TrEMBL record:
It holds the Pfam family Alg14. This is UDP-N-acetylglucosamine transferase subunit ALG14. Heterodimer with ALG13 to form a functional enzyme. Keywords: Endoplasmic reticulum, Membrane, Transferase, Transmembrane, Transmembrane helix. The gene is ALG14. It is a single-pass membrane protein. Belongs to the ALG14 family. Coiled coil: none annotated.
Length: 269
């Protein structure tokens, strides 16, 4: 019996082709499947998610040896209403560079800039005691803001010959906003806005407080494969498979294949 191209069959064939293309595109851009990046010597742009309170304190402790020669431009992303993290980021940069001047963007109240850095404010993904049924809406607003700030079209000032565009590296340690940043990076890679092989490498660091297992954020990031490097701070957090998961301890990380210094993760002392 000859094949008859009925509307239903054509629709099913088109749907199958679309699903296959979609699946292969996801496999091609998943951070957990991308090859390790070679050592980078050119100036880079790092985006650091500050999640408020303990998350912020842990993150600033981890990046205290950040290389200014390598990461010439630094973006700190904070949630709305989190003045603590904004002030801590300014204090951290003051200690890092010795420059105290910061200015607010007259055209965008969500942006504060200083010498070699910027602080971006996004809507909070979920507030304390916020009803769960409203969380999807606030999370969507946060995601849309993350998409805008991660895009290469977001204006950033030139630093001599270097003009920072989209981040080369994203570093987060567990807040809900951090998960949405990683999802935003994935979406932008899917549509080709970010380079699928080189753009926005993602590193996730689990909180030191997670002794017996991963946080909800960690389980989402690991389950979806959103990060090239997944660091835990207690050995039992490595689980059975290992994979991209590594053990972080005092500025070094260890996996099942041995140890490597902090420079192998995001920068160098």
């Amino acid at each position: 019996m000859a094949f008859e191209p009925t509307p239903l069959r054509l629709a099913l064939a088109a749907l199958l082709l679309l699903a296959t293309t979609f699946f292969h595109r996801i496999l091609a851009i998943l951070p957990s499947r991308r090859p390790p990046a070679p050592p980078r010597t050119s100036p880079s742009h790092i985006l650091i998610v500050l999640g408020s309170g303990g998350h912020t304190a842990e993150m600033l402790s981890m990046i205290r040896y950040l290389s200014l020669e390598r990461y010439i431009y630094r973006t700190y992303l904070v949630s709305s209403g989190d003045a603590f993290s904004t002030l801590k980021a300014i204090d951290f940069e003051r200690g890092l560079t010795g420059v105290e001047t910061t200015t607010a963007d007259e055209k965008n109240t969500e942006v504060v800039r200083g010498e070699g850095f910027e602080i971006l404010t996004v809507p909070r993904a979920r507030r304390i005691h916020q009803p769960l049924y409203t969380a999807p809406l606030t999370s969507l607003l946060c995601l849309l803001s993350c998409l805008r700030f991660l895009s290469p079209t977001h204006p950033r000032p030139k630093l001599g010959p270097y003009h920072p565009t989209a981040p080369d590296l994203i570093l987060t340690n567990g807040p809900a906003t951090g998960v949405l940043v990683l999802i935003a990076a994935f979406v932008l890679r899917f549509f080709g806005v970010l380079n699928a092989q080189k753009g926005a490498r993602c590193v996730y660091v689990e909180s030191w407080a997670r002794v017996g297992g991963l946080s909800l954020s960690g389980r989402i990031v690991e389950g979806l494969g959103l990060a090239e490097r997944f660091l835990v701070q207690w050995e039992r957090g490595l689980g059975e498979g290992g994979g991209r998961k590594r053990l972080w301890n005092g500025g070094r990380w260890w996996g099942r294949g041995g140890g490597e210094g902090v420079e192998g993760v995001f920068g160098g002392r």
